[in-house]
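Residues determine shape. Next comes a sample protein:
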Amino acid sequence: MSEVNSPPPLGGWTRFVTARPRLSLLAALVLTALAVFAGSGVAERMGSGGWADPSAESTYATKALEREFPASQPNVLLLVDSGRASVDDPAVAAEGRRLAEQLAAEKDVTGVGSYWQTGSPALRARDGRQALIAARIQGDEKAAAEVLERIAPDFRGAHGPVDVSIGGPVGVQHEMTTIIQDDLLRAEMIALPVTLVLLVMVFGSAIAALLPLGVGIVAILGTNAVLRGITEFADVSVFAQNLTTALGLGLAIDYALFIVRRFREELAAGAEVREAVGITLRTAGRTVLFSALTVAVSLAAMLVFPQYFLRSFAYAGIAVVLLAAGAALILLPAALMLLGHRVNALDLRRLFRRARGKSVGTDTEATGAGWARFAALVMRRAPLFAFATVTGLMLLGLPFLGVKFGTPDDRQLPATAESHVVQQQIRDGFPGSPAGGLEVFAEDKRSRTTPAEYADYRARIAALPGVLRVDGPVTASGSAYFAVQPKGEAVGERAQRLVHELRDVPASFETSVTGRAAVLEDSKAAIADRLPLALGIIAVVTLLLVFLLTGSVLIPIQAVVLNALSLTAMFGAVVWVFQDGNLSGLLSFTSTGDIETTLPVLMFCIAFGLSMDYGVFLLSRIKEEYDHTGDHEHAVRFGLQRTGGLITAAAVILAVVMVGIGTSRVTNTKMLGLGIALAVLMDAMVVRSLLVPSVMKLMGVSTWWAPAPLRRFHQRFGLSEGEIPQPTPESKPDTGPKSGPESDPDAVRDKVNA
């Protein structure tokens, strides 16, 4: 550091990023402008589904039914309301038939059926004042949404004696996409100014506060361009845009906070600008690199799952993490080179600092004094703090033991959304579930199945205890399908059991089962099958990266376990609030009584990565000081002193961004934003402040133990934050001078590893 008599020479990376700072910033400006152009219209190319396993039996059956029996898979519903008249009134019936014929004449619409054409009781409300017209819009999600947007104005609203509203899966997905785009824009408008205010409060300097925002904007725009490219060959969920905004701002601010803060520390200690940039990159820069790798690995683990909903977050997350780290390690040093001491310009706290008679450097030291005292208190009562914190976190996570998994539906939308209103009226007013049962696709490639065999198979299905009604078979050349109405809820536990019972019914032909309950069961099976692999990837790579950073065997294990503990409150809150419906009125959402299957996986990967982000920042500073002094307790105290306030500020800023996302009117997005915000705050304010120092105190100097072969491996391949300078009087612990072999860091480490 700057106290060393001769500063270390600038490394190759430092020379590269600081050689032509103006050229670097100009190139970044040009690339950002190109990213704006390349990423335009990305939302219109995204889908709103992606929860199903594309290789599952239910997916195969769904596609087969779409192809062979399009009327069996309606994805658009017209709710025809006759007011006080009966739907059997001649004028109402005539208008209903006319609307059905008009819908059937539309391009890309097939399988049209209505109550007035089929007489099906499932398409007529119990009170006789509403009826349904069902149809299927052909094509994938994007194509179907475009068709619906084109034809909806011709059908929605008053038509003589009736009034028409539009629902069905396509309507739900289209409204969800539109609402998410609007909510994302609103979240950005909320988060950006609030974030800027918080950054000014953290840095004091308005100039320094603008630098993290600049890094975040570059990361977000660049990721949108990357996602636009990915949509050319893969499906991408529209929900991934929320992650792009949240992580783009959050991680960019985290990385820039640590780099700018370290740069200002070095300037305050007397370093020249170029020297300060070099020290910053060798210390905070290396930490940012390790942090980005750990977060990227946590998000990349979602690539092992087949659902494109999860894979989309991996695409967006990896891109935004790498771009945020790249901007922080390339563009930010170039900006710091040009700004130099002007990074402290427009310091809004200067008047207060002058009134207290403090300089920049002493102010920096003073801001961490409280954290040092707090760390000392925690370590003095380490067993008490460790036990109380672990117990509290476990208790907060208990509600997750009662989690129930389900599939997303229209209740994700606001209660006033048209498709939500339509589907709710269908649930409340129509017998059965016109679009929520199970379907069995029967396939006889040799076309030898007789009507008697179909009848026998239907009788076996009807005999199952969970079956309310069986319709069919509806036959075609070499195939048929049966519509099975389960007892109880369409995706309840009884319906999920019925899926397996249907698949076990013997038949002389091939059968496959689909429907919402079948999709849910297949999705749960796919996640359960691949979850150990995803967790294994996260654990192994995290252990390796933290070992390379610290050289300890125990610290990586501790980091993984404590990070997992920090997520218990998030999972418990998700079940207590969103599944059980507590605070639903305050947060304005409709509880479905379950949690969408992929969301816990998604939230785990994101929150674990962000927790490791803060963990790496703290551990790297502790390791740097331990290498500097050889005093374990002082290193823990010093690490919390230098990073505690910064980690807390970064967590609060990221939580603000996530709460902005959590203001979404779509329940899954609300759950994601508020859940991650809670996890981030719990990790920064509880785990990093209480659990880490207490556990490291209990472990003592054995924290740094590693067997001899691994020590040699780390000495050859490991990276630590900064060089190991000789101790100076200013950097020694404040507990007084030491003498003898215990004062030598190398002797201490040799003793620990012995």
Observations:
- The CA atoms of residues 630 and 744 lie 6 Å apart.
- The first strand starts at residue 76 and ends at 81.
- The two ends are 30 Å apart (CA to CA).
- Residues 1-10, 355-366, 721-754 have pLDDT under 50 and may be disordered.
